[in-house]
Design goal:
- Keywords: Isomerase, Manganese, Metal-binding.
- This is L-rhamnose catabolism isomerase.
- It comes from Olivibacter ginsenosidimutans.
- By secondary structure, the chain is α/β, with parallel strands linked by helices.
- The chain has one domain: Divalent-metal-dependent TIM barrel enzymes (TIM Barrel).
- It is built from 15 helices and 13 strands.
- The chain is globular, with a radius of gyration of 22 Å.
- It binds 6-deoxy-beta-L-fructofuranose (LRH) and manganese (II) ion.
- Manganese (II) ion binds next to loops.
Length: 427
């Protein structure tokens, strides 16, 4: 798997030929940013977890068009994330999905991840599909199911996922339940909620003391009338009733059209119940598109609320919230798509760090609406790409990860090594 290693000298060599142009742009940008060294430190320390289930080509019920060279094993998935991290030094963790990524040998998997400088972020359980050797079906739900034996099967699976995570050094479990109903009358909402809460409580009791559980909500799909963890209010209710180690998880694609996600983020953070994110973008439903590719202003506004709210609670930007991508790649090279998502997230974070909070606060307290917008958009309209690139360079990454990825023909090398028809486990 040598090809996976992008040697440091190749990155330095590439950066040298791009450095003059980069330095010129950076100097132009930072002459008006007096705290840019502090911002650079924050950008260098900010790590985004890559989903193990998004390293192959995604698809829909209408079709899937594999791009070739996809990882055939957990080891090759870790190597692919290692490659991303070598290029941008901001992808220092992988988030596993069970049973798609069951580690056969924990020591080997930990050692391989460490070789690439990767940690194991949140573990993800799966009670939205029936596995070949599964006794009872989740067709009518898992933790909400009318049959307590099915609920127990779902609880046992989540406890098993925690066990895998403990062996790998993960510190959190994300539970996304597809449970719900497709037709009025199909479900008793109150019983579904209580059965789900009881089941989550059994999982909660199995959590090690230093672990978190993230309750991920979603408005619809695969159920199209009701979802038992359907919005931030329901997730907040579960997390509040479960206890201090339970939090909500905000997947940007899981909202009804025109939801004000930045306001939801602000309030969940205020209540100390915001656990983390699944970053992606969407125009219609849970489209799982590249972060910042459709609504970059919304992504900036979300980070604006995050910086304001985290600083208000003296939270550590790098470790107090779960930063994860959850995307699916139907038409792009999965690795290029993930590099673009990380870049968009780093840009939104850098712009949010540029916001003059004292001036914004003053404008808000004076109801100077136009001034408040001017202050926000001054940050959003600042091209911070040289700052994000400088953070990458100082961390040993490439000034332009995608350009280097292409100039090294990585995808062709992967296809040569793995074949053009390989299919990665996942969505
Ligand atoms: C559900 C979801 C969830 C994952 C799955 C892969 O839409 O966002 O986070 O388990 O995608
Ligand atoms: Mn998600």
């Amino acid at each position: 798997m040598k090809i996976m290693n992008i040697e440091k000298y190749k990155i330095e060599e590439y950066n040298q030929q791009a450095d003059a142009k980069h330095t010129r742009k950076l100097e132009g940008l930072v002459e008006d940013i007096n705290n840019y060294q502090e911002i650079l430190k924050k950008l260098i320390n900010f790590q985004i977890a890559i989903p193990s289930w998004a390293l192959g080509s995604g698809g829909t019920r209408f079709g899937r068009f594999p791009g070739g060279g996809e990882p055939r094993s957990l080891e090759e998935k870790i190597a692919d994330v290692g490659l991303l991290h070598a290029l941008n030094r901001s992808s220092g963790a992988i988030s596993l999905h069970i049973p798609w990524d069951i580690p056969e040998n924990y020591q080997e998997i930990r050692a391989l991840a460490a070789q690439y400088g990767l940690a194991f972020d949140a573990m993800n359980s799966n009670t939205f599909q029936d596995q070949p050797n599964q006794a009872l079906s989740y067709k009518f739900g898992s933790m909400q199911h009318v049959d307590r034996v099915v609920r127990k099967q779902a609880v046992d699976h989540n406890i098993e996922v925690i066990k895998h995570g403990i062996e790998l050094g993960s510190k959190s479990l994300t539970v996304w339940l597809s449970d719900g109903s497709c037709f009025p009358g199909q479900l008793n909402f109150r019983k579904a909620f209580q059965r789900t809460l009881e089941s989550l409580q059994e999982v909660y009791e199995a959590l090690p003391a230093d672990w978190k559980i993230f309750v991920e909500y979603k408005a619809f799909e695969p159920n199209f009338y009701s979802t038992t963890v359907g919005d931030w209010g329901q997730s907040f209710l579960y997390a509040s009733k479960l206890g201090a180690q339970a939090y909500t998880l905000v997947d940007l694609g899981h909202h009804l059209p025109n939801a004000n996600i930045e306001q939801i983020v602000s309030l969940l953070l205020m209540e100390g119940k915001l656990g983390g994110f699944h970053f992606n973008d969407s125009k219609y439903g849970d489209d799982d598109l590249t972060a910042g590719s459709i609504k970059p202003y919304q992504l900036f506004l979300i980070f604006n609320e995050l910086v304001e709210g985290m600083d208000a609670r003296q939270l550590d930007h790098t470790k107090d919230l779960g930063w994860m991508i959850d995307a699916s790649h139907n038409v792009k090279d999965p690795l290029e798509d993930l590099l673009q998502s990380v870049e968009a997230i780093m840009i939104a974070y850098a712009q949010a760090l540029l916001v003059d909070r004292t001036a914004l606060n003053a404008a808000q307290e004076e109801n100077d609406v136009a001034k408040a917008q001017e202050i926000l958009q001054a940050a959003f309209r600042t091209d911070v790409r040289p700052l994000v690139a400088e953070a990458r360079k100082r961390a040993g990454g490439a000034l332009d990860p995608i350009a280097l990825y292409r100039s090294l023909n990585v995808r062709q090398e992967l296809i040569k090594e793995r074949g053009s028809k390989t299919v990665a486990t996942g969505l």
